[in-house]
Fold:
Amino acid sequence: MSGMTSYLAGRTAEDRVAAEYARAGHVILSRRWRGQAGEIDLVAEKDGETVFIEVKKSRSFARAAERLSRRQMQRIYASASDYLGHLPDGQNSVARFDVALVNDRGIIEIVENALCA
Structure:
């Protein structure tokens, strides 16, 4: 049952983060977008900038941040490259990589440009 609980907690965290971005004026383009390299939790857009968002939930912000591995970052970059390939400006599109940390109280801390290539 803990697997299902973790899954549902992750989905809830993603929903809350999507709502936070929407409140800030972003348009959510995709949830759990899957490319050949893997999945991106959320893809949003605001003012012509595509934002790739990785959501990490844990007891604390620090523990959530620790859960983002180098391998995951590489997967996110590869998936984002695949996504950008479908946009009119392709790899020349303006984009950034954010990490949204969610603690056990449901508080969200967004780190913009957290993954710098």
In short: Helices lie at 2-23, 61-66, 70-84. DSSP finds three helices and five strands in the chain.
